[in-house]
Input
Amino acid sequence: MSALADLLDHRHVLVCCGTGGVGKTTTAAALALAGAQQGRRVAVITIDPARRLADTLGLAGHTDAEVDRDRWDPEGRAPGRARLTAMMLDPSETFDGLVARYARNEEQRDRILGNRFYRNLAGALSGTQEYMAMERLHELHETGAYDLIVVDTPPTRHALDFLDAPQRLIRLLDNRVFRLMMAPARGALRVAGTALHLFVRQLGRVVGTGVVDDIVSFFRAFDGMEEGFRARADAVRTLLAAPDTAFVLVTSPRRDSIDEARHFAERITDHGLTVDALVANRVLPAFAEADAAADLRARATALRDRPATDDPDADAAGRRLADRYDTLADLAVVAARERAVLTEAATAMGTRPVYVPYLDHDVHDLGALREIGRHLVG
Output
């Protein structure tokens, strides 16, 4: 049984991380499908900008939908309680839900949701997408509706933001300027101190008083909600560190991908977390043992050195077979080298690698995802 099979059986959250172009989204979808086939109630969340997961599962746009059981379990082998739900993250929609949750009343909620500064903040603030993914994860966790939640993250440089996002929100709430803007004070602007008044006036000259009014109105409307956001950020951070949350690092045999994986594993450790599984996609199949390469090359040499016969076709076939022996020897050496490097990286992370070989077809439907799942789970 692979490390992933154990994670699918016993963990509640699987966070799939990795650099772009290594099959991370496909891995997340395949793990979710495998979990459902094992009888678990599974949700898979993606924030992949290419929306490949949505295409694979037949979803359109930012839609949350339960995948039809006849599609993911055509043979009817999964236990009756099993289910598979796919979700495309809409950061703005998730942020709106948080505002609705922590607003004191409908009037405060509507003031914030209708504020132009808030609309820009919800859609474009650096890190919002990553934080909202974590918020969506926590929301699903709280419902208790799913045994397993699989999260597909952005490429590695953004996935680090994904890990840092809860703490960044807390730092924003603790920021001195933010606290001053939120502090009750006299006057039309709820700001504190002459210096801050001056800053607001200067800002208005640069960006326009309308923009500044929107910003000030937002902070006014936000008053009293920051503690709810702070508590939520703490809860998200706690969920990431929970013992039933696992991190699955996805890579490929390419040196740059492995280096990225090592870097990410170091950052995981910096957060007090661990890498629970390393998935290596597009690995060369082990056509032969590495130590068989010398024997294969010897066979190729023997065929080429064989005296010519009266049958040109047989001689040509011998040369072609010699070429195949050489190719097989080369592939055996490269495959062994790939596995050695990946095993070394996984060992340094305290886990074992799980190999998914090159396939002779694209992964574009649930049948192909099932095939990937068999390689992942074993």
